[in-house]
Amino acid sequence: MIRQAGNTDSDRERLACLQQLQSLPGLDKRLRADLDKLVKEIDQYVHNPRLDYFGRQFRRNMDHDFGIAPDSPLYALAGFYRARMITWYVLETENRWKEPKTRRELFDKVRGLFEQTATAFPENKIAAMYLGRPQPAPKRYSAPVNAPAWAAHQREALERLTDIIEWWIDHRQQPDGSYGGGWGDDCEMWRWWVPVLIGFDSSKIGEAQARFSTAILSQPHMKGGYTSKMTDVEHTAEDSADAMTPMMHLDPDNPVWRDRALRLAELMETLWTGRNERGFLQFKSTYFTSERVDPNPQRACDTVYHPRAMQPALLYWQRTGDARLTRLFSAWMDTWVDAAGRAERGKPAGVIPSAIHWPGGQVGGLGPDWWDPQNHSEPALYRFPSAMSLMTHTLLLTAHITGNAKYLEPVRSMAALRLNFLRHQPTGTLVPGSADWCASKISVSSVLAKHRQVTGSTEFDEHLKTTKPRDDRKSLTKSLRQTAQAFAVNFEGYTSEVRYTDRVLRFPVLFEDNTMFPKAISGFQAPSPSLLYSTVTGDPGDALYFPLNAVRWLTPPREIAALVTIAGSNRFGAELFHFGTTPRSLAAELYLLEKGDYEWEQVADGAAKQTKQFTVTGSRTRVAFNLPAQQLCRVTVRKVQP
């Protein structure tokens, strides 16, 4: 019965098996005592509504001793649970385990426990999975021979991602709308749902997101429109930004979400910001709530993470051009343009700092180095470059809405710095805070790609050539295949094994260098939801800041592949392949087209060209059409000139 319990892959079945053993008469006294301990622990593992219930204990001693001795026949099973707890706690707190020797000792211990399990219970595929032996996902997805390779791989990746999302909805979403990781972690799940949540129209997934977003914003700590729990902006902003932003994509006309976004602007105007001694508008602290701002001078920094607090309001501003928000956000970005342009405290001119101190307005914080504000207990969180892309995208958005090129100057100077570094990479040790050191750490490709898409300008093409081109079909197909392959194995590693809901797709990290093994195991790669989102919608970046998704396909994310090839203000193009056996009716909701009359042209392999006329009058236009079964279909939309 112990072998049966150890060889099953289901924790519930294991618990039932051990409970059956527990009920047998005449058990050895010591075995019964160990069995009682183990059953209690596994029952907790299976039924505790908090998946990470053991986290507090692990913060104290990095282990959970079940009180079962090594010579007990239940020791290997106890070790199996200890190993999983340690593994997921380390994945959740991975920034604390960067020191190579400590990291090696930790994972050697974990691997040893998994190896004991695998030796005692050779049919346990979960232990084998942690030891680098991939386990095929339960479903298979085949493609007709005429399907383009990119379409077959993208379709498989979308289907498998949908399988994972639906597993979480079916097995983990609780009556209160949460998923078991705590509101602050559960709210982040939508970020990897984006390809199917925003790219397509799944009623099940959309309803689950609406249920969660409504639930978290109904919690007592959110009654002020923002959390009342005091901590830093990267964490206080999660519950509001990650609840409102997806719903503003899914339900943009609902005044409830508009009003919640505008509440953030009200808090920014009346509580969180003020004019510094240089006369510029800035946040007064890294720590604030819906009720107060932390007065601690050490924490008195505006940072590149602060757009996180305003994310839903920034999205509303992007869509409406609201005049009040234009005044507010442009005044805030004036502060960052000024700080980026100054050479101060050793910071090179043209570099956006990671923080600006209040009330003086000087770059950095109270730490001795401008690049390390020391405004938070986690050392690396706000250290340059920190969340630089949040600020560069906000500057680009401000330039786009106001038409004022000054807001692009920090982006231009950072791009020039980075390009010069890539051309003439220096040798030797880089001095922290120097221009070359800054250039070695920044990445601006995403914001430059969005600039090109929204303006049509070729200004940054030379820089963009240094990254892998999106329109290279061969490399694109390879990347889509890698994501499909990543999702095709270790389904449990993305579902039932996960204990921290902000780490759902992190399982492949276990097989990198100096993790579960000293050397990386080949054949494992992390899936890329961002690649799926970009190919499906045409957005060259992500959906979080200044999203430029050109389309949403109003059809479920099953048996379909869609590759946006053109996403401009007066043109749109896509290739689609429907894997079903009968024609498919759907609609495209187009977002980026300027007002005017357009022609829709649709050509399928071996079929006559179909055309239709439609008019764009606002920010969203729906066009209904039919896809033939198992034929590559090309769609082109062009503005009709008067």
Describe this structure in words.
The chain is globular. Strand 6 (560-567) and strand 7 form a beta hairpin. It starts with a helix and ends with a strand. The protein has 3 domains: 2-130, no CATH class; 219-467, Alpha/alpha barrel (Glycosyltransferase), CATH 1.50.10.10; 550-639, Glycosyl hydrolase domain, family 39 (Immunoglobulin-like, Sandwich), CATH 2.60.40. The strands form 4 sheets. Strands 6-7-12-9-10 form a 5-stranded antiparallel beta sheet. Strands 5-8-11 form a 3-stranded antiparallel beta sheet, with no helix packed on it. A two-stranded antiparallel ribbon has the order 1-2. It has 642 residues and is α+β, with helices and mostly antiparallel strands. Helix 2 packs antiparallel against helix 3 (29-47), helix 13 (238-250) packs parallel to helix 15 (311-320) and helix 14 crosses helix 15 (311-320). Helix content is 44%, strand content 11%. The model has no long low-confidence stretch (mean pLDDT 96). The protein is built from 24 helices and 12 strands.
Overall 3D form: globular
How does the major sheet shape up? 5 strands, antiparallel
The helical percent reads 40-55%
Could you please say which CATH topology of the largest domain applies here? Answer: Glycosyltransferase
Radius of gyration: 26 Å
The fraction of residues assigned to DSSP E strands is: 5-15%
Q: Write the CATH architecture name of the largest domain.
A: Alpha/alpha barrel
CATH class descriptor of the largest domain: Mainly Alpha
Cross-sheet strand order for the largest sheet: 6-7-12-9-10
Q: Ends: how far apart?
A: 80 Å
Q: pLDDT below 50 for ≥5 consecutive residues: which ranges?
A: none
Number of domains: 3
- What structural category do the secondary elements indicate? alpha+beta
